[in-house]
Specification:
The chain folds into 2 domains: 58 residues, 2,3-Dihydroxybiphenyl 1,2-Dioxygenase, domain 1 (Roll), CATH 3.10.180; 73 residues, Roll (2,3-Dihydroxybiphenyl 1,2-Dioxygenase, domain 1). 26% of the residues lie in helices and 33% in strands.
Length: 147
């Protein structure tokens, strides 16, 4: 068996109107199209994936709640860019909308040619967009499995 990617991810937010405004700019800019845009849920599809946000249940949401990256659960979500220039274009949009940018586009050693921007949504949820040329680590993994 081999999966065909990740179908969708849902993020729960405390301040839905603020998060909706942020994702309403971000997701369409990434080519995702709204499928559900209702009170308490915003869900977009495209690029063989989907991402949505939903209002947190009042019994679990405390005033001032923020995402904590190293708490048990989600660490971050990373979108894969088709070309390096997409990372730069996203960075420009993030600056325009006043997003908290953890690091501007930069190269890293995670994979050959790895290039990414790391940022946070209004809840503090970490998001990333990266570009890795070719097949990245897949070539190495397949070569090791054939050895």
């Amino acid at each position: 068996m081999e999966i065909n990617g990740i179908a969708h991810a849902m993020l729960t937010v405390a301040d839905f109107p603020r998060a909706r405004a942020f994702y309403g700019r971000l997701l369409p800019a990434l080519g995702l199209k709204p499928l559900i845009d209702a009170d308490g849920m915003y869900y977009c599809i495209g690029g063989r994936t989907a991402l949505g946000i939903q209002r947190g249940d009042a019994q679990f949401v405390q005033a001032g709640d923020r995402f904590v990256q190293n708490r048990v659960g989600l660490h971050h979500v990373c979108f894969r860019a088709r070309q390096r220039e997409d990372v730069d274009a996203l960075h420009a949009l993030l600056v325009e909308i006043g997003a908290h940018i953890v690091h501007a586009p930069e190269e890293a050693q995670f994979a050959p040619g790895y290039y990414s921007v790391l940022f946070e949504d209004p809840e503090g949820i970490r998001l990333e967009m990266n570009f890795v040329p070719g097949r990245g680590h897949l070539d190495r993994v397949e070569a090791e499995s054939q050895a």
